[in-house]
Amino acid sequence: MSRSDIDLSNLDYFEQNQAWPLLDALREDEPLHWNDEPAPNHGFWSVTRHSDIVNVTRDEDVFSSELGGANLEELDDEQIEVRKSMLETDGARHWALRRLLQHQFTPRGLVGYEGFLRGLTASTLDAAFAKGEFDFVKEVSADFPIRVLARMLDVPDEDTGQLIDWGNQMVGNSDPDYTDVLADSQESEKYRLMPFRSPAALEVFEYGFDLAAKRKGSEGNDLVSRLVNQTPEDGVAMSDRDFRNYFLLLVVAGNETTRQAISHSVKALIDNPDQLALLQAEPERIAGAVEEMLRWASPVYHFRRTATRDVEMYGETIKQGDKVVAWFASGNRDPRVFEDPYRFDVTRTRVDHVTFGKGGPHFCLGNQLARMEIKIMFQELIPRLAATPIQLNGEVLHVRSNFINGIKKFPVRVG
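and the corresponding structure tokens:
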């Protein structure tokens, strides 16, 4: 396949887990690649090298999240305005919104959760292992992080199934196994003002507003109470749009990164029994191995920016208004940064991955929570696997998406 024929908007490659050689080819031979798209979209530039991804995602003055959103879908002015969340906001307003919940996601803010997490992890694994045969995504990696989010939102455990379903419908808006309203369908036009063009967003908004009404004026420390009872430090009060889109972002982001990192890492340990044996023999390595797991998993394939002005790169001109897509997954396989990048190596040190955005203004707010969840999951899981080995029990299926690097079916057998 010639470089000009590589089409990263073709979801078949991602559903079949075949995008990696395409990203490799671009990273080595055409690190700035123009990708045509079917109408009504107009195409996009891809950056695939680690250093370029870092530069693009750090420079919001040139590569904006606010002008066109964070995903490949091209939005008109009305859609941009109605859908805008913290993720699609730059500058001082972005930081003001971010700081509303920033403390809750620092190591100090999370210190009280470790005991809860260990108990939850143990009970989740016990329930799954008791079945002998189960789907690891459904019973463990999707179930566990959403229960953590439910506690942070202070909502009942029985709501977690609905939260998972809403998240699946939105981030899986290009996968017919997850949604009845595909993002590229004519029916999705009815939901063009909703995030992800998803009817599930309407249900999430209603759920969030109901919580907000009950928490308004309270002294609670849950995430909803803090959102509705604080004024951002820039003095601009939260509008209904601000609240609903922030809440929806929590529902999606609070689950996906951890969920996919756990799934891909368990699959990697099954495929690399020497690495599993090493962690079993030296469990003190697990905490350090989390960074390799995050690199390997690359839960989000890409985020998009929009050029604010013409800029030269690799002899090409990125024009003002062009979409520029930073392929995080490619950066995490860049041999300039990672020796033998397709080797899953839990002894790898100084793992300089870009999974969370690597220090840019949109650096993942929940990165410390995700790290804690993954560490505790494998500290609880790996000792169990000595007495109760795990193996695949069917075909592993990937989400049909070039945004979320997701596993949707992961049948296993233990014992």
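(Above: one complete record from the training split.) The mean pLDDT is 95.
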